[in-house]
Amino acid sequence: MLRCVFLLTVLCLQGCSAIKLGYQQLPTLSFWWLDSSVSFSDAQTPPAKEALAQLHRWHRAEELPLYADVFKRLAVQSAEPLQPQQVCNVVSEVDKALDRTMRKAVNLAAPVAMTMGPEQLSHLGLHWASKNQDWEKEWVQGSASERLERRVSKAVDRYSDFYGPLTSTQTAMVRAQLQQSAWTPDWGRRDRLRRHQDLLSALQKASQSSPSALPQVEADLWGVWQRWMDPPDAYGRGVIQKLRSQACENLAQLHNSTTPEQRLRAARRLRAYEQDLRDLIRP
């Protein structure tokens, strides 16, 4: 649920320097991650690296200033109570930023995708199968209470990194929120597999396309991204919409329970994130 969790992504950052360090290394880290998934050939490696470098340069120039402005605004808002709609407004703003980034990424990735061979697609399928086993262990295995406690632990850790230690009342609030979540392991598994199959089908089609079909390949990959975030079935769309609404309500509820000290810590963290991005923007 990438579109719903910009604020929660912020909560995952372990200290301000994580932004600078991670962002500066993003092209290299992204290539390693992609290479482990598809095993680029010698011929594919240079264009893949160049595509990632171009995307990074574009994002740094065009998108980082917007994210810095978001952090600046959030630092001010964090001193006061939040309404769920305020959180959703930020999510909507980041939705648009993610779409812009993915549109650029699709255009740069399509030529490389068209050169993929059957062995690479098979490698990708095996890679996902391995990752799915890890996902099952984390999100599906165990009793309902065990799964809930794992989710609570992760959520509390994220919030604590941002606000400082949560009180017992706040932890109980997080637990209650997760108990009411629209997300279920069964739906999560089905949607995860759906996304993987959707992308694999698009890549298979791309690999069999002629050079003149580049616009269609770009359109197909863009469609995968749209369906990645907005499932094609009515039930899936309903789950996503409910999760988005709950994410906004839950974060606003928890924020409104925080102490002045916790809000001060959050504001300081947000201002530090903003400064890190401003530093990255400078030539």
Name a few traits of the molecule.
mainly alpha, 283 residues, disordered N terminus, globular
Shape: globular
Q: Low-confidence stretches at least 5 residues in length (pLDDT < 50)? A: 1-16
| N/C terminus separation | 33 Å
Quaternary arrangement of the chains shown? single chain
Report on this structure.
The chain has one domain (2-281). It starts with 5 loop residues before the first helix and ends with a helix. Mean pLDDT is 92; it is low at 1-16. It has helices spanning 6-12, 17-24, 26-38, 45-62, 64-77, 84-113, 118-139, 144-163, 168-179, 185-207, 214-229, 234-256, 260-281. The longest helix has 30 residues, at 84-113. 19% of the residues are buried. The protein has 283 residues and is mainly alpha-helical. 81% of the residues lie in helices and 0% in strands. The protein contains 13 helices and no strands.
Give the topology, please.
Layout: H1 6-12, H2 17-24, H3 26-38, H4 45-62, H5 64-77, H6 84-113, H7 118-139, H8 144-163, H9 168-179, H10 185-207, H11 214-229, H12 234-256, H13 260-281
The gist of it:
With 283 residues, this protein is mostly helical. It has helices spanning 6-12, 17-24, 26-38, 45-62, 64-77, 84-113, 118-139, 144-163, 168-179, 185-207, 214-229, 234-256, 260-281.
